């Protein structure tokens, strides 16, 4: 699986990704989602759920 990416132009900062997959995603000081440095979707096992749950489709894997 490739590294997740967040389209910050689409992101509305709802936080569902960070709630579902806190080892990979977090909300930054601008109120938008970012991928944590060194995050590993393989070991986290929740990236697909986070991407599927994003209400604006801002996460790609």
From TrEMBL:
<dbReference type="Pfam" id="PF13370">
    <property type="entry name" value="Fer4_13"/>
</dbReference>
<keyword id="KW-0411">Iron-sulfur</keyword>
<dbReference type="InterPro" id="IPR001080">
    <property type="entry name" value="3Fe4S_ferredoxin"/>
</dbReference>
<feature type="domain" description="4Fe-4S ferredoxin-type">
    <location>
        <begin position="2"/>
        <end position="30"/>
    </location>
</feature>
<dbReference type="GO" id="GO:0051536">
    <property type="term" value="F:iron-sulfur cluster binding"/>
</dbReference>
<dbReference type="GO" id="GO:0005506">
    <property type="term" value="F:iron ion binding"/>
</dbReference>
<dbReference type="InterPro" id="IPR051269">
    <property type="entry name" value="Fe-S_cluster_ET"/>
</dbReference>
<keyword id="KW-0813">Transport</keyword>
<keyword id="KW-0408">Iron</keyword>
<keyword id="KW-0479">Metal-binding</keyword>
<dbReference type="InterPro" id="IPR017900">
    <property type="entry name" value="4Fe4S_Fe_S_CS"/>
</dbReference>
<dbReference type="GO" id="GO:0009055">
    <property type="term" value="F:electron transfer activity"/>
</dbReference>
<protein>
    <recommendedName>
        <fullName>Ferredoxin</fullName>
    </recommendedName>
</protein>
<keyword id="KW-0249">Electron transport</keyword>
<comment type="function">
    <text>Ferredoxins are iron-sulfur proteins that transfer electrons in a wide variety of metabolic reactions.</text>
</comment>
<dbReference type="InterPro" id="IPR017896">
    <property type="entry name" value="4Fe4S_Fe-S-bd"/>
</dbReference>
């Amino acid at each position: 699986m490739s590294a997740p990416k967040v389209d910050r132009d689409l992101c509305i900062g709802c936080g569902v990704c960070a709630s579902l997959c806190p080892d990979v995603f977090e909300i930054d000081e601008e109120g938008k989602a970012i991928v944590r440095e060194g995050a590993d979707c393989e070991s986290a096992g929740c990236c697909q759920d986070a991407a599927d749950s994003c209400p604006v489709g801002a996460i790609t894997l």
